Amino acid sequence: MTVRARFENSAGSLFTDGLRGVLAAHPDAAWHDAGFVARRTPRSSGVALVSGGGSGHEPMHVGMIGAGMIDAACPGLIFTSPNAVQIAAATRAVDTGAGVLHIVKNYTGDVMNFAVARRLVAVADGEMPAVQTEVVLVDDDVATEDTSGPGRRGTAATVVVEKICGAAADLGAPLTEVAALGRRTVARARSMAVSVSACNVPGATEPSFDLADGEMAFGVGIHGERARDERPVVAAEEIVTDLLARILPGTGLASGDRALVVVNNLGAVTDLELGVLFAETVKQLGERGIEVVRSLVGRVITALDMAGASITVVPLDDELIRLWDAPTAAPGWPNTAAAPSNLDPLAQALPDDSAARGEPNVWLSDFVGRVQRSVDELTELDRQAGDGDFGTNMAAALGHFPLPLRGSDSDVLGAMATSYLVRSGGTSGAVFGTFLTELARALAPDGAGLAAGVRAGLDAVVELGGARVGDKTVVDALSPAADVLDTGGSLAAAAAAAAHGVAATADSAASRGRASYLGDAVRGVPDPGALVMSWLFEAAAESR
């Protein structure tokens, strides 16, 4: 395996160059030559918070500096703990006389250096008085709780503690109370991470660990530590089930309890994938009677460019909710909504595909079944002729329909049209949804009939996108079929005309849609939209 290229001047300067850029974009952070970053406008009173750790986890910790969160962060080299001198200097710098809380991830280097720093600041240093300190040790990662050594690692729950304790400090709570809140939060916070690829450490010649194709690492660490459990990649539902089975026992959550869920991007995961994991987590906790009343979904604590995610579950009560909802100016903190997590709006936005009931509808069942079986074929065609999303859009529109479809032609076509418009989106959703809407109206009991419906659908599609025969679109199949039906021709003749139109698209260059960007490169490839449209006429000819 090779290490991926990255945006850098050199592997050795990534830390310093990257930190320079982070600080340039940070509205309230300043570098101190002693090796720490602190708020440019320091607090004038109250408890201060210091955290830190190796770089490569951004936006944690420097991005969490700001009112409502931490006062200073001590960055180490990539995946390397800061040293005690840095930490001691930061602690003295931010102390207002009310004491300083250290928030420390449970890694040996971090624990040792923060402990040494507390010893250093416990006595006066020249004109600088002694500083009273407390520590919250974050140890949320259940992947290592049954191993010899330091026990659970400190991972994404760190930012939860920084938020809770930062809000309490800003509200004027004394040091012992702020520390107690942090420890209470950590005591039942649990996390675990899964990854489908390793991270790439600057200067290394190989990724942090090897994963076979189709395998995932279950229980990875935020410093690129490999997992003891490597298994085949499975659906997100099963991944969340297995993660929660490890996470929930330590939280003590039961039916009727409230929780915070953090779904964290370890570096190279899309927001859509995080959304899938979060939706599954909310659903499965809800099935246990646990209400997700607050959430944080996004890039919070990364492992450079690891393609992985972690799930953190933290029990909440009224006090912790109030502190979680308190404002913060930290730029790395997302603008999270102070409201319960709710999946119902999504369900309400999707069509009720079970509305059509009655006798089986043979020809439309045959059509939908053919599309469902051909998603991979359609995807491959569109990779050659467009941007590769056509099969996905067809699956989104028709993949969820149970077969056989039941109901009248008009009812089933109406449900299909709505599904295309709502679920599929994009050009194909609009085109097929529009055509099927017109066809459904024409096949209603008082409608104008099939031939009129095909013509109305064709006219609506042409008006929608301006395509004509020869533009390598669905119109190449629709127009000849409509012409046959207009003259009283049979469905078999219409299907043959549509198929002939599809074949003609293989010899043309596209002038509409994203395939038009490729010019002559798409010659020899039939248009997948026209192909699917021809299947509709084939199904009608064979079954009606």
Structure description:
This protein starts with 13 loop residues before the first helix and ends with a helix. The protein is 43% helix and 13% strand. It contains 18 helices and twelve strands. It has helices at 14-25, 84-94, 108-121, 157-170, 175-187, 236-251, 271-287, 318-325, 344-349, 362-373, 375-385, 390-398, 409-424, 426-442, 450-465, 475-486, 491-505, 528-543, and strands at residues 30-32, 36-38, 48-55, 72-78, 100-105, 133-138, 190-195, 215-218, 229-232, 258-265, 291-298, 308-316. α3 (108-121) links the parallel β5 and β6 (133-138). The protein is of the alpha/beta class. The longest helix is centred in the middle third of the chain and has 17 residues, at 271-287. 51% of the residues are buried.
Structure, briefly:
By secondary structure, the chain is α/β, with parallel strands linked by helices. The protein has 18 helices and 12 strands.
Low-confidence stretches: 346-356, 511-522
The backbone outline, from C-alpha atoms, is elongated
What is the CA-atom radius of gyration, in angstroms? 30 Å
Task: Profile the largest sheet.
Answer: 6 strands, mixed
Helix/strand order = HEEEEHEHEHHEEEHEHEEHHHHHHHHHHH
Oligomer: single chain
Count the DSSP helices: 18
Strand order of the largest sheet: 1-2-4-3-5-6
Q: Total number of β-strand segments?
A: 12
- Helicity level, as a percent range? 40-55%
Distance, first to last CA: 56 Å
What portion of residues belong to β-strands? 5-15%
What structural class do helix, strand and pairing data support? alpha/beta
Mean pLDDT: 90
